[in-house]
Amino acid sequence: MTWASLDLDQRVIDVLQGLEYINPLISQLESIPHILSGNDVFVHSPTGSGKTIIILATILQQLVQQPDFQTVILVPTHELASQTFTVFRETLEIAKQQNISYKTSLLLDEQSLILPFSNIVISTPFLLSKNLFTYEKTGFLVIDEADLMLQMMQETALRSILAKISAKTQKTLLSASLDDDVENFKLFSLRSPILVNLSAAKEVGGNQIQQYFINYVDTTEKFLYLYSLTKLRLLQGNIIIFAKSQKQGYRIHLFLKTFSMNSIVFDPKMPQNIRLQTLSDFNVKGGIFIIAGKSEEVDASRGLDLNKIDFVIAFNCYSSAIDYQHAIGRCCRGINKNGSSYLFVEYGKDDANLVTIQNSLKEQFQSIELFPLELSELQAFKYRVRDVINRYDDKAVKVHITQQVKQHILQSDHLKSLVQSEIDQTMLKKIKGNKVQQVAQLPDYLLNAARSLKVKSKVGSSGMSGFATMARKRKEENMKKKKDLKKAKIAAASGWKKDKGRIAPPPK
């Protein structure tokens, strides 16, 4: 099926294809016709299944037909609001080439002023309800992650907005999980809504990823497996690591740093401007992205839009199959069709949770397999891993968090302005972090162990190329040393001398 089958204007199709969405996904094929027909629609579709493009395509089509059409988009978090705004801002550059123009406003601060007219207004329920915004021209209301808003206690703000909106305003609700208690959604006042329920089973043939679980018995084993996935480069690409708490997230950060692996920590407890900068840095640079728990304001497994994710590591087993699927759904957004996810499962403690997840996946024609890597093959690295994790107890992690906060303050003009007195600035500069002794270089005997490490089936797209690269580089270095030594011996025997890196003949 093509975009043309949805009766979209050719200019809209050109914009979508200019954004490299060549053909629609199942979720878009089943949702867009209902929305363009003027119906209220509730779209339940897995994370990463293209819900943002459903809204983008329908809004562009409406703007082609009615240039002064206005849409309000409500999202649960500041981060998602900012990222949604970026999507529409970047789309505008391509849309202008097709003579489609619109104005977009992003409301992320409490304001008492009335916003100027915009075709697209993006905000959170709480902030928009505080604004003197008029809804007279609003023809379309989009509520993204509707069930998450209810969980985040935004019901009062939603009620305030819905009370001001005309009963004729068309509404579309988007959600990656559908609560059995549909009563919760009555407050949205949908008119004869059409439910588009797309489970992962219907997405077979789309962005399916290989799912693994990793069994461990103690903390050393847990970090040993993490070491194999990252430092030994079993996974090569952009990686998300979900940690259960701020403390665990920064401990992982310290662990990786000790082995000279750069990573970015997204801390939900940090101020909004720091969180947005962290997201921007990762989307530009890529690498390893550690999500350090969640807060009442931010649930990163659902409230963030991360680009080009190849691998997802859930460092703790989820008690809810839905929470697990939201987390691994991040990987579906990646450009790597061979992406994979890794769920860490503690022997004995997490067995029941694993069974729950397995049963849920089975209902959706998916499966999660035991990661095919024997612990015995990692024994050569165990002492290094154990030594490093023993260095970073709770006290060391607390010091590291304080140091990270200091760095953010010094790098942020807004936060720096809050530390105005010379005494405060002097005290801030005196804060010291942990002295991280890096152990990045692998000795030859450990490099050989890494080279001989065998994985019984293909993992992601990387295979064993990481080991091959390290081994080849080390081999080239050793051969060069041997050649230089041989030349030096020949020169010494013939009376020649080494001059600035080259063998020079003796003076005549």
Any overview of this molecule?
- It comes from Spironucleus salmonicida.
- The chain has helices spanning 10-18, 26-36, 51-65, 78-97, 125-130, 146-151, 155-164, 219-230, 246-258, 272-285, 300-303, 321-329, 351-363, 382-391, 394-411, 413-418, 422-430, 444-452, 465-494; strands at residues 41-44, 70-74, 104-107, 120-123, 138-144, 170-175, 194-197, 210-216, 239-243, 263-266, 288-292, 311-314, 340-346, 369-370, 497-499, 502-504.
- The protein has 508 residues and is of the alpha/beta class.
- It starts with 9 loop residues before the first helix and ends with a strand.
- The protein has a 7-stranded parallel beta sheet with strand order 3-4-2-5-6-1-7. Strands 10-11-9-12-13-8-14 form a 7-stranded parallel beta sheet, with helices on both faces. It has a two-stranded antiparallel ribbon with strand order 15-16.
- The protein is built from 19 helices and 16 strands.
- The longest helix has 30 residues, at 465-494.
- Helix 12 (321-329) links the parallel strand 12 (311-314) and strand 13 (340-346).
- The model is unreliable at 454-458, 460-472 and 498-503 (pLDDT under 50).
- It folds into 2 domains: 3-197, Rossmann fold, CATH 3.40.50.300; 210-392, Rossmann fold (3-Layer(aba) Sandwich).
- Helix 9 (246-258) crosses helix 15 (394-411).
